[in-house]
């Protein structure tokens, strides 16, 4: 590491960025070390994050920040497994639960093609995040499975991968700790929507997994952090460049996100939707989720050498889902991470809310929003829909707050669908009855019904890769 000739002071570093001066690698390293060893306060870290948000980063600064965050703690090394390591990460969405399906699909493919040492031929060492802004988080969803440990120490993470082909954990105090701290801070100080900060956050986690290949799902549209197509494209290019420079084959798919993905948005609700799909119960509202999952998993299977094209990969992914192999892989991953798999046994329901099997049902309140007029569901601000889900109790208002397992929404209609007056559109669920009114109003305000059908964007807008 470069040794600064003069002592560095965080206040000077904040001033430099505030005034639009470039930061040196040493200054960026000083910042990242300081947040991890807690010599820099949250107020100082927040000030620098806001300065970065407003002033941006040069390519050199972005590379320095990503590298410093990647090496801010332990990193994972799968080389002794002699397997193909691959992961996918999304820039965040509403009802975006593809990770819960993709990890077992890839694990099943890897188990079917073991290495000579009997290890799955593909491994997915997935480091995920919690809910961020209006979007949900994979860790919060997984933790609704009683006992599921998202903080496995690295040796257990390694063992789970070796036997199951996938493991899903979060940043910990020792694994990418800088992202753990900055991620939680950014959620509360209005600095999420920065292409540089998103790139450093995602790529520090993914590069700490020492992957052979990475597929990025970069959202664009009203539910994405980057709303405009150009901004989403810029974010995708930054991440692809960062991954490629670090030696990881990186592909970004720009995907449309103008409405919640699938049938449910909410922590347990999303786990249940994925379990249904893996158990071969395909609800019509889950069709877009299944399509997106197969496209992303297909691209991964292609990169892993299991399919001659991403399209053939998507067909293989669907076959793995339909055969039950993904569900078997899911059960073994959940069990290996301490989760109680009996909660998936039967699907009981309360007020239309699918509950965890065998659990004493907590009281769940619901309210259904209906079409105020006949016509076509034409548009919605999907970010507002995400905030409505968070305010039902699915998200947190400050770092460390607990999240509700059961809060969320069920979609009864999708964009472009023909509606008749009074038809159910969305059901809201909450464990606290007083939390239903505001989200109900937010959803009522944002759903637009028009006489003519809207023009809809395709699910995949563009694929961006280095070469
Ligand atoms: N996902 C992440 O891991 N980080 C971000 O900043 C946004 C989405």
Give the key terms.
467 residues, alpha/beta, Transferase, Pyrimidine Nucleoside Phosphorylase, Chain A, domain 3, Pyrimidine Nucleoside Phosphorylase, Chain A, domain 2, Aldehyde Oxidoreductase, domain 3, 3 domains, 6-stranded mixed sheet, 4-stranded antiparallel sheet, 15 strands, 16% strand, binds uracil
Describe the structure.
The protein is α/β, with parallel strands linked by helices. It folds into three domains: 10-56, Transferase, Pyrimidine Nucleoside Phosphorylase, Chain C (Transferase, Pyrimidine Nucleoside Phosphorylase, Chain A, domain 3, Up-down Bundle), CATH 1.20.970.10; 79-345, Nucleoside phosphorylase/phosphoribosyltransferase catalytic domain (Pyrimidine Nucleoside Phosphorylase, Chain A, domain 2), CATH 3.40.1030.10; 350-450, Aldehyde Oxidoreductase, domain 3, CATH 3.90.1170.30. It has helices at 10-18, 25-36, 42-55, 59-70, 98-112, 138-142, 154-164, 177-186, 195-207, 229-245, 267-278, 287-303, 310-323, 325-336, 382-394, 437-446; strands at 84-90, 122-128, 166-170, 213-220, 249-256, 264-265, 348-350, 353-355, 365-370, 375-379, 408-411, 418-419, 424-430, 448-450, 460-465. It is globular, with a radius of gyration of 22 Å. The structure holds uracil. Uracil (URA) binds next to α9.
């Amino acid at each position: 590491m470069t040794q600064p000739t003069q002592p560095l002071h965080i206040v000077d570093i904040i001033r430099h960025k505030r005034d639009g001066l470039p930061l040196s690698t040493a200054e960026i390293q000083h910042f990242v070390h300081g947040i991890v060893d807690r010599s820099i306060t949250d107020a100082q870290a927040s000030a620098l994050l806001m300065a970065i948000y407003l002033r941006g980063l040069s390519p050199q600064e972005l590379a320095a920040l990503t590298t410093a965050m990647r090496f801010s703690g332990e990193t994972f090394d799968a080389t002794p497994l002699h397997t193909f390591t691959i992961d996918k990460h999304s820039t965040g969405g509403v009802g975006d639960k593809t990770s819960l399906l993709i990890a077992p699909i890839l694990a099943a493919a890897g188990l079917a093609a073991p290495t000579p040492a009997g290890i799955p031929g593909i491994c997915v060492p997935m480091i995920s995040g919690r809910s961020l802004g209006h979007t949900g988080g994979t860790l919060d969803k997984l933790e609704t499975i009683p006992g599921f440990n998202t903080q496995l120490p690295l040796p257990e993470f390694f063992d789970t991968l070796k036997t199951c082909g996938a493991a899903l954990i979060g940043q910990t105090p020792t694994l990418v700790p800088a992202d753990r701290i900055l991620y939680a801070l950014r959620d509360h100080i209005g600095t999420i929507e920065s292409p540089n900060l998103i790139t450093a956050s995602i790529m520090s986690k993914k590069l700490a997994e020492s992957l052979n290949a990475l597929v990025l799902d970069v959202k664009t549209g009203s539910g994405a952090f980057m709303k405009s197509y150009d901004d989403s494209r810029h974010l995708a290019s930054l991440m692809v460049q960062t991954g490629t420079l670090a030696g990881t084959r990186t592909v970004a798919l720009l995907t449309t996100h103008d409405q919640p993905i699938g049938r449910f948005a909410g922590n347990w609700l999303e786990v249940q939707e994925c379990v249904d799909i893996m158990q071969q119960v395909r609800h019509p509202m889950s069709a877009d989720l299944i399509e997106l999952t197969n496209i992303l998993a297909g691209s991964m299977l292609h990169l892993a050498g299991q399919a001659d094209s991403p399209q053939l990969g998507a067909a293989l992914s669907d076959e793995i889902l339909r055969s039950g192999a993904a569900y078997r892989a899911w059960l073994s991953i959940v069990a290996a991470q301490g989760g109680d798999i009996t909660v998936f046994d039967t699907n009981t329901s309360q007020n239309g809310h699918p509950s965890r099997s065998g659990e004493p049902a907590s009281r769940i309140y619901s309210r259904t929003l209906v079409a105020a007029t006949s016509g076509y569901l034409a548009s919605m601000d999907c970010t507002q829909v995400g905030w409505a889900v968070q305010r039902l109790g699915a998200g947190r208002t400050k770092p460390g707050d607990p999240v509700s397992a059961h809060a969320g929404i069920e979609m009864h209609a999708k964009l472009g669908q023909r509606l008749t007056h009074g038809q159910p559109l969305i059901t809201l669920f909450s464990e606290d009855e007083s939390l239903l009114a505001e989200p109900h109003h937010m959803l009522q305000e944002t759903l637009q019904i028009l006489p003519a059908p809207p023009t809809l964007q395709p699910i995949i807008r563009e694929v961006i890769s280095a070469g």
